[in-house]
Queue: 2 jobs
Job 1
Amino acid sequence: MKKLFLLPIITLLFLCGCSNSSAKETISVYNAGEYIDPEILKDFEKETGIRVNYSTFASNEDMYIKVTQSQDTYDVLVPSDYMIEKLIKGDFLQELDFSQIENFKEVEDNLINPSYDKENKYSVPYFWGTLGIIYNKDFVKGKVDSWDVLWDPAYTDQIIMYNSQRDTIGCALKRLGYSLNSSDPKEIEEAKKSLIDQKKIVYAYMDDDGRDVVVSGDANLSLMYSGDALLMMSQNESLDYVIPKEGSNMWIDAMVIPKNSENPSGAHKFINYMLNKEVQVKNVNYCKGYTSPVKGVKDLLPDEIKNSKVAYPDMDSLNNMETFVDIGDAVKLYDKAWTEINASS
């Protein structure tokens, strides 16, 4: 998932940008930061007359707490796969009325009935992509095809890991030959120990600000989402991206409507609008490489995106790809491991 922590200004613009705003129909959309072209929100209002109150969250976990424990209400959320499953289990989402989402017929077949929403009652995909390693070809020598490179002491102080519990523990689990959704205490403990051992050679645990560190050459290896990787590669031609042979995460972010939505009709209109092919092209161009779930969008993109193996990998050639799922009570094992990893030096 795209994880950026900005854009309070966009929220303000859409709260204050219209005269007679109190008379307008509104919807509230809660998404990750820098994950939509702001012009799309303006275009949606022009087309529908519905004003968008747009706000952002830093992580799926932060979003979950806000949605389930605060008095704030939203009409559209854009969580990741495993968090959608958790929201469904907690009875926080309403079933979608697909008669109001006619553009759903344009969604790629392989994204329908996903593991986190097997009957496709609650969600419509927004973007998808992969998690892998971005590295500087001028600095990192030899073939890069394994998670092992992030544990190689030859690259001490050149490695950035995500400040993200599921992503970082997940890649450690895959490196060890386990599922990134493991709930086995022994496997989670082994992954934890490997990350603690690795920490002495790591430059830093960072959020998305790690992108600039790699682009500038202050670090030369990092865990990275595919969309961010493609953007970074456009900024530094020495960078490349690989999905390790042990397998990785294929993530899907999707649009859902909470049960306490105050304008579900407007929410359905927004979801349907976001699946419009031209809107998708605009959003992909803005987000620089995150992969559209809509058929035919790829052919309308600039060559550097549509021909990119980062944005459009050959999934048939990839082994052991997994989507994160809700791990239930095993999250306590991950929380404990993460606390101990962060406390280590």
Job 2
Amino acid sequence: MKRSTRITIKDLARQLKISTSTVSRALRDHHEIKAETKKAVLELAKKLDYQPNEVSLSLLKKKTKMIGVVVPKMGYHFFSAALDGIEAVTQKAGFTVMVCQTNESYEREVQNIRNMAAGRVDGVLVSVSGETKDYEHFRQLQRKGIPLVFFDRECKSIEASRVLVDNYGASCKVVEHLAEMGCKKIAYLGGPQSMALSNTRLQGYKDTLEKLRLPIEGRWEVHCDVSRDGARIAAEKLIDQEDVPDAIFAMSDRLATTLMGLLKERGIKIPDEIAVVGFNNEPIAPIMTPSLTSVKQSEFEIGQLAAEILLNEIDSEDELEVPISRMIKTELIIRESSKKIKS
């Protein structure tokens, strides 16, 4: 026999066309809710036989004081620095942090999320893996009532709070800088086409080329996984073609350093023949030869802000009506790899 579907606060809110938090407060006889609204909510609740889930309510009141953090790889400088920001906030609040890395694997990401949900963490911070194209595991987490906040890498189809850098604006600055250096054939070396972060940077690149009336060529746009082997194969596609670009904007410093290694092997001068710009301002950027121009992000601040938002959602008694979105500004650090002498 098919089990009947439990009526939830969301069902009541949908039928009454009011917010879930208003329904929740009306059911608790909150003083800020109008009498007629309380009456409508209570009458519908009685009509539909709404029963609060007492087991869930009791569990929600018992916090584990633990949050989960899922990142692509702790070896990436960005995530180790962001974790410092996360722990600076969580430790003050008395929370313990459980960190899992996916190694850019979708399967590992799914398993990590499931394990965290089973372990009853109070909330989860996530930076999506490079392979992830299906997001049902995040929806399952939300259906369990566990707060979810994305940072750095997001999933646009999931309604959740997020903390991102201004990827679009940063890309515009990169292209404008390369154009100022006299570059006219600017290419983009991006990550997986399913990665929202890479696509946002790509859009900034394209829009700025169009604004500056510089050519937008499909052959100068290549994508790869975020491994060094994948980056090398993609970089070869750019420099082995007949019409070679005179500048390459790489989605990350990891891709940029692989690219620069390949250019040196081929005897191609940086930046005289091909200028290179990366993204993330990794510690290796200033000590490379030539030093790498890159976009600087505030990793610590991103981690702090993401943790603050998550803890606020954990402490809130009401369901989040509108997810919070925060954008962190960037700075372009200009070094030798892009200082091309204008002809």
